[in-house]
Amino acid sequence: MLRCVAAAAAAGVLAAAPAFAQQGDYPTRPVKMIVDVAPGGGVDTATRLVAGKLERTFGQPFVVENRPGAAGSIGAEVVYAAEPDGYMLLASSPSPLAINQWLYKKLSYDPAGFQPIAMMSRIPNVLMVRTDFPAEDVQGFVAYVKQHPGALSFGSQGVGTASHLTGAMFMRRTGTRMTHVPYKGTAPIISDVVAGHIDLTFIQVSNAFPMHEAGKARILAVATERRLDFLPDVPTLAEAGLPISTDTWNAISAPPKTPAAIIAKLNGAINAALKEPDVQSKLRALKALVGGDSSPAEVQAFVESERRQWGEAVRDAGVVPQ
Prior knowledge:
The protein contains 11 helices and 10 strands. Strands 1, 2, 3, 4, 5, 6, 7, 8, 9 and 10 form a 10-stranded mixed beta sheet that branches. It folds into 2 domains: 29-123 and 248-317, D-Maltodextrin-Binding Protein, domain 2 (3-Layer(aba) Sandwich); 124-240, Periplasmic binding protein-like II (D-Maltodextrin-Binding Protein, domain 2). Strand 1 (31-35), helix 2 and strand 2 (62-66) form a beta-alpha-beta unit. The protein is an alpha/beta fold. Helices cover 45% and strands 19% of the residues.
């Protein structure tokens, strides 16, 4: 009997050895990075920059594949069901990890089951108004909205998007009421604010900044904890007594049960890639706040806090899960 036990134990050690060796040698073959949005956006750009650096670091291809659709759920489903071996990763916006669970009654993946690895970048949201809007600052803006309940229109990228939910948060915390106008995409929102067809939007600074700089629209405030270096004269919402901080972040995650050794190895390599001057320069040109300084545990805690915040915002907006 003892001989059988010893033999079984030895067999277990031998079976485990290749797995441990594989983790230590990781990666030994190409890694696929699934991007949950279409090519060309902030998540896609950041992922391709990082993928190029990881190829150089590990000597293996890091292949970027776009799987857009269903607010990021299509790409998330693919990665969630993948083997937890580090050879398929998810590069995502907040939607699949922090928002979709509040918008849909049923998902084919558990957002909390993903293992966040690293934060690539964050693009803050701003409050942008038409050029002839009567208020010059946030305090004046809130007073004007209160004087005209329901009369002002704010555009968003659609029901349940960060731009919509940021507006919902703003209204709850200020006790104001505005009319939500959902759009399909960002470009028509910007065009209609510039043309004066709608009054305002809560939108990513990367889209708002060119209009603000050209004098075609005005950024009244940024939804960040501190002022932005490239908008030093624009206050934060917190300075007006509204501690609202929302942005579109770009994170890399792995399927559930991916070994901690692989998560740590990828975290170190991605953080190092994000510190390289050319990567930082290209991301900052997109008006993104560059990541690269968080551990997997810190990214996990951030995503969990985002999940709670967006859940509250969905309830504020009165969105009924579909």
